[in-house]
Amino acid sequence: MSEYVNITIDGHDIKAKKGERVLWAALDNDIYIPHLCGIRQEERPNAGCRLCFVEVEGASRPVTSCTKNVEEGMVITTRSERVDRLVKTAFELILSDHNLKCRECPANRSCVLQDIAKKRKIKLRHDRFKSIVREFEIDDSPAEFAFDRSRCVLCGQCIWADREEAKVGAIGFTKRGINRVVTTFKDLPLAESICTQCLLCVEACPVGALYYKKNESDDSNKNSEKNS
Amino acid sequence: MSNFTPAEIYKELLEEAISQGEARKEKTRVLVGTATCGVAAGALKIKEDFLREIESKNLSDDVDVFEVGCIGHCYAEPLAIIAKPGHPAICYGRLDDGLVHRLVEDFLVADDPSYEYAMAALERNDVFPTFEDFPRGIYEKKLILEQCGFIDARDVNSYLAREGYSGLAKALVEKPEWVLEEIKAANLRGRGGAGFPAGLKWEACIKSKGDAIYVICNADEGDPGAFMDRSILESDPHLVIEGMILCAYTVGAQKGYLYIRAEYPRAVTHVQEALEQARMKGLLGNSILGTDFNFDLEIFQGSGAFVCGEATALVNSMEGKMGMPESRPPRLAQKGYRGKPTVLNNVKTFAYVPLIIRNGADWFKETGTPESPGTAVFSLVGKVVNTGLVEVPMGTTLRQLIYDVGDGLPNDREFKAVQIGGPSGGCLPESALDVPIDFDSLQDAGAIMGSGGLVVMDEDDCMVSVARYFLEFTQHESCGKCTFCRLGTKHMLDILTDITKGKGDGDSLALLEELAEDVRDGSLCNLGRTAPNPVLTTLKYFRDEYIAHIEEGRCPALACRDLILYYIEPPKCSKLCNVCVGSCPTEAIFTRDDGLKEIDQEKCVKCDNCLKACPGEYNAVVKISPPVLPPEKVRVAK
Ligand SMILES: Cc1cc2nc3c(=O)[nH]c(=O)nc-3n(C[C@H](O)[C@H](O)[C@H](O)COP(=O)(O)O)c2cc1C
Ligand code: SF4
Ligand code: SF4
Ligand code: FES
């Protein structure tokens, strides 16, 4: 059996590795699909952000591309009325719970939300839904970085970095439903937890929730580089 | 392997059980219904009353008192069955200590069955009607509830004596493939909500060829108001256990679990005892009925969150992880508990299995519809006369279920809607009453079979509030993993809350509907996918009620507190009676100069006390919506 399968995405013929998921096959071939929570190496995708919908021929409704394995002959379309509608709603829902003061945010201009808005021509607003952003105390206990949960989109990238790259296990999701947050064991400030301050989570955060503190002596703006 | 065949070993067990049963029948037996529903109504005290009265009459040697499960007539609880030699077994309901005293004195001592207090006889006889003679008896057909409340749930012999485990004995001399074909031929569909064919699920599991296979029974039953799985486990645990053993034999599993919610302590105890007794009889554990088939079962007590009933979340919770759903595939049949192929079925699904194996697939298909064979079990609650557990053939219409089995609405109230399938189900109107109850017809109407909760509603129920109530439940139970369910249900709930407060605007309905559709289409698991059902169905069938709230600030059912006011109609007020004044907790009601009572709207907290207190001959207190006082008030108050 060959190691590759032939698929079509938006009319392009693509050879994709067997076992690969549609999202990564598309991105590897410069075909854009919005995504926040997808992690290529993750065996069982989180599939929480619901931004990566595509149409797969034969499927009755849009499917999340981060969970869909490529199959020989699969025909995929990244845009459709149904896909665009779901992505727009999911995106606006995320924005309704996101601190949208971009100008005050260290991730301004490097933020993945701004990127999605631009690429999918969705306004960085949530006119349909009222804001339900809550106030959180900023955890600025670490020496070099801080954590502002009002900007967190619960993508889980930081948790993956902490567990699988740093192999520390300092942070994780807790609480259910609308109260879901990323936090440390017993909700301790990061500096009091087992966090080693290796900064991998800060690098992983696609928005400005985990960010480098401004450092007077060091003017280089790490925050705006980290996602480029 | 033993030298005896399963049939021989089974025959011996059966004979022993029957002779124990016969011995018991020589004495008078009092069977008190002590499932959780009975206990809630005071059944344990009734049992004590019986024991005390029996002792005081020195009858302790002649009468045995047993605990049995729920017979489904919950409205008449606490109840007991008295089986006295020479009389048909008779069920008595609504017991209290006085009635117990009477029954012991008149029936147990004096041999007069006190028919005036009897509900029904249990077997056909010449003197007193049976439950089947009830109007609902014509429509009811009990398969999995048949023995519930009639057998001693805590004695395996009681189950054995009624053909219990005969399906297992029959299957063990056949190949596993035979059992699978029988279940497939019966077209047994999963009773946990979605109606997926059990045979196909089992087959998928066999095809996965893992080195271990697990069988799990889903007894999480998190729907508020649903209690049939609890009832079955409490009242007839061996039926479910036999079903699981048969499944294990079919798919080649050696280990299984019953995932029971920790809030069901009686079910846990009864199942625990049943497992021990089954092991002692050689029906469970190593070398079942003398064959080389080994299978054992264990109870896992669930943490209680509603979403843990979802298949993947249930497995996560059993593995000690957070009880959150995963995206599928892989399905549990490929990768389930501990990464191994796993069969997960509902309590009721397993309960049908022994009956199908015992009586054959064709027997099963005699009941119900071709696409949904068998029966449906519902907990009938709300504005209906006979609340309780009912089992009817699939294909029975909602109208028959509510009016014939449930005996209609109490006090001649007018039917408005029925919520079917629990918080993830839909609200169907009068025009849908002739929809037959089966998996596919309900789905087409916008509801689901779900867990089998069925709530009847009348004109006092506001459909916006009802939708809000159910959504509040699912929103609260959302695990928070995915965007649509975590945030979408929150915004839907906020919009609904605004509407019930009269704060909705022209865009609210369109937005609500759009969002509901997106949450349905975009959520990760079925909690999110089905959460919009109550909203979508009420929008479809009762849109005018939404519009009345939004455009007129009026709640047609007079239920939304912010849209009503309480008003005392001057022509009806007696002037001389002061009842309402005393009933008001905030002293909002005062006597005017002309002697009439009036409510100070500033002080009124809309507690409904005065409306209830005003004597029936006056009925002067009314609710008004929109909350605008009639002009009379202006005129008289001058
Ligand atoms: C939020 C949620 C809660 C559920 N709760 C239950 C439950 O309490 N009991 C149950 O049997 N199935 C429940 N299910 C359905 C299960 O996921 C699964 O489909 C079922 O247990 C399979 O058994 P069946 O095929 O016999 O119906 C639930 C599903 C969801 C999405
Ligand atoms: S802190 Fe950043 S990386 Fe972590 S979950 Fe929130 S948005 Fe994602
Ligand atoms: S639909 Fe709701 S319960 Fe299901 S995964 Fe999403 S957030 Fe969790
Ligand atoms: S990337 Fe697929 S759901 Fe988030």
In total, how many beta strands of chain A?
Answer: 9
Q: Strand arrangement, largest sheet of chain B?
A: 2-1-3-4-5
Specify Rg of chain B, calculated over alpha carbons.
Answer: 28 Å
Low-confidence stretches of chain B: none
Give a verbal description of the structure:
The complex is a heterodimer of chains A (228) and B (638). Chain A has six helices and nine strands. Chain A has 228 residues and is α+β, with helices and mostly antiparallel strands. Chain A folds into two domains: 4-90, Ubiquitin-like (UB roll); 134-219, Alpha-Beta Plaits (2-Layer Sandwich). In chain A, the strands form three sheets. In chain A, strands 2-1-5-3-4 form a five-stranded mixed β-sheet, sandwiched between helices. In chain A, strands 6-9 form a two-stranded antiparallel sheet. In chain A, strand 3 (53-56) and strand 4 (63-64) form a beta hairpin. In chain A, 42% of the residues are buried. The model of chain A has no long low-confidence stretch (mean pLDDT 93). Chain B is globular. In chain B, a hairpin with a 5-residue loop joins strand 12 (415-420) and strand 13. In chain B, helix 7 runs parallel beside helix 11 (237-251). The model of chain B has no long low-confidence stretch (mean pLDDT 93). Helices cover 41% and strands 14% of the residues of chain B. The site of one iron/sulfur cluster (SF4) has 14 residues of chain B, from helix 19 and helix 21.
